[in-house]
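URGENT: need a sanity check before tomorrow's submission.

F., can you look over the F5/8 type C domain-containing protein record below? I want to be sure the sequence and structure line up before it goes out.
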Amino acid sequence: MPVLPPATRGGHYVPNREPLQPVPFQKLPPGAIEPRGWLAQQLDLQVKGLCGRYDEISDFLVYETNGWVDPAQGAWEELPYWLRGFGDLGYVTGDTGVLTRTERWINGILGTQAADGWFGPERLRTSLEGGPDFWPGMPLLGALRSWFEFTGDERVIPFMSRYLAFQNTQPAEVFNRSWGAFRWGDNIDSAYWLYNRTGDAWLLELVHKMHAGSADYVSGIPNWHNVNLAQGFREPLQYGLLATDPALAAATYRNYATIMELYGQFPGGGFAGDENSRPGFGDPRQGFETCGIAELMHSFEMLTRFTGDTVWTDRCEELAFNALPASYDPLQQVMHYITCANSVQLDDRVKHGQFENPFAMQAFKYGVRQYRCCPHNYGMAWPYYAQELWLATTDSGLAASMFAASKVTATVGDGTVVTVVQDTDYPFDETVTLTVQTAEPVEFPLYVRIPGWAEGAEVNGQRAEGNWVKLDRTWRDGDQVTVTLPMRISTRVWADNQNSVSVDRGPLTYSLAIAERYERIGGTDEWPELAVYPESPWNYGLPADPTFELVRREAGQDPFTQDGVPVALTTTGQRIPQWETDTEDVVGLLQPGPALTTEPVEQIALIPMGAARLRVASFPQVDADGKEWVYRTRITASHVNNGDSLEAPHDGRRPASSADSTIPRFTWWDHRGTTEWIQYDLRSPRDMSTIEVYWYDDTGTGECRVPASWRALWLDGNTWHPIDTTYETKPDQLNTATFAPVRAQVVRVEAILQPTFSAGILSLAFS
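Structure tokens as predicted:
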């Protein structure tokens, strides 16, 4: 019988006090779980790489000039982000250098608290509309909690109590400002943590204030910033532990479903949020910010403990294995801002059409200034994952919640301390062996999670039913449990993304094995910044009913690299010539499938997504009776603003007005009074006699206006011919011009901008 651990107030590890709802699991203290195998190797790379040594590089992490230890100095989220992961990295690895530096920072931070409870940079007291910015303190509370759990430092509890009491004096409007407005779920978790240790009832009053004053995730999605979503969607369920309204938990489940249905229609566990999730930008070439990966994993881990619902654990593993390792280079020295399901070149150029931000987002850099939040924040992902492999249960047992080679030491049963060793090559292998080490026989329940994909799973040779298997018995030294999780190869069809298909084996999604060429583009010998270029074809589609062969390789030191991955697949595919990169070397948008192709059938190799820095994981389907793809128009311009899109004029969206800010735009900003152009290469000659332009004009908010004049031209060999017609420059409407038919492949619009203004285009079409 499937059995979920009971939600009670028992157990050995700080259960929820009344009136908080009891939950089935309790987090073990940092240091209770020793990572082994590939996870220990990833953590060792982190110690030696970017997170473990980022204070050598980032000027945000200079102790002597940091506002978190000297309140007269400036500082914001960078140190809190970094210290949260850095400290826990030390706790799970035991690295003395990391622990020593963590202690120095913690001592400095604890020494800054003012009489009223505020701590850290004084300027943050009044930085938001004259009131305090509480956001950067939220991750720091997480760092202090871990420090307390690891060391028992008696200063932490009164420090947090004074700080949260200061928050409790604030008016309601303070809770709905800036980034913190969408992330108070983190602070609610810290308030619960403190309440469970002190019993101070005013902390629950503060939780009511935080929920009532902050962004409303109960009614829907209040903000589409990807990291806000990754942290904020869970807030209703967290508040529901106090408010006891089942609609609150339902809101969290609904929020997640809404996000993924709109923007998560591709493999890897993330969603399209290359800053904000945006209508029309859900193709698998869109990216998920590395901060989002780390924060969403953390949310899933919390929700597993609160609910016991293994769907959250499955989702955490999917992100951890398929997206997280690809967010940094194989040595974990540099990283990028976003990770995509389909991405065939990682260069250091702005992409005017794919991504929202006005900076290059894909090359591997240490990113102190370019990527800023992500290299400071990513470090919590693997340490937190390691700490959630095992959970304590409220019936004084243990639960193997996630799988990786590890050793846990914990108090169970009547208070006996036991160790359980987990031996496995999961997620690359389907067998997990648990071995109990105990000085004397002890009775306690041992729970084993069964992933949702593991049909036919067995525990000790018996078929597993449901998502948790409970083994309640008297355990003796050397007793073993063998878990078999059949990893069948399967495919998923993504109907909302042109019926593209992805390939899974267990928790791993597979990507085309593309030959990768790394090129140093900056940095130093010790910290080289890298671009990655493809050295083999990538534009393959898969047949509707593909067959696969599993190929086992000799495992390398790092299984999340092309050379080290221990399992691969082979199958057949056909190239689709019309599937190209655009003018800025971004993988082209998927087109309606299945695709028609006459290219020969080839054998291709697939490797796990997490081992592929260049990847195609969302494949078009191909079929002899499929739809013919077209070569997409290539768009260039004399200039384009870094925050705008080259593809916007050709994306098919119709603006509501010239000032429509709900759709992408193209502008020549900040060029003013100049002659500028935008050019279409239609890829083949076409007959045309009409041009339609919808000008961008942000009168009242910006400095773009309709141009002083404009004209269209077509290219004949090397000669540009002006098109003779009447050109209108009216805002808030399509400006349509007809002309004597011409046959051309390359056409352009040339505009003379008003002397003190720039200009832009929302829609442009030749027909």
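My own read: The mean pLDDT is 96. The chain has 15 helices and 33 strands. If you see anything odd, call me.
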